[in-house]
Amino acid sequence: MSPRRNRAKGAGFSGQSAEDDRSGRYGGWQSTESWHDEEWNVRHVAGASAQGKAYRCPGCDQLIPDGVPHVVAWPEHAGVDDRRHWHKACWNAKDRRTTRVRRSRNAPRF
After folding, report:
1. Which of 79, 84, 39 is nearest to 60 (CA)?
2. Is the Cβ–Cβ distance between 95 and 41 less than 8 Å?
């Protein structure tokens, strides 16, 4: 009898290094994407690391409740104040959305 496999067949190298995996435990992995002729840092945040915090998605103008996995994106040249928290689906659909989200007069910007 052979020992039990912990991984499915074909689950070889995932494309991430051990350093990337270690950062994944504490808040997700980070990559760089091009959008609007600009490089953006994109970090995938696990739901467990977002406990006790709620954010407003700039893509749909809805709240991202605490504990929900989401994406944090900011321009590569920008600072911490320019980070925005997006739903994963909204970040993936950012090119298919209109340029301006209509908000009510009293709604917060983000």
Report:
1. 84
2. no
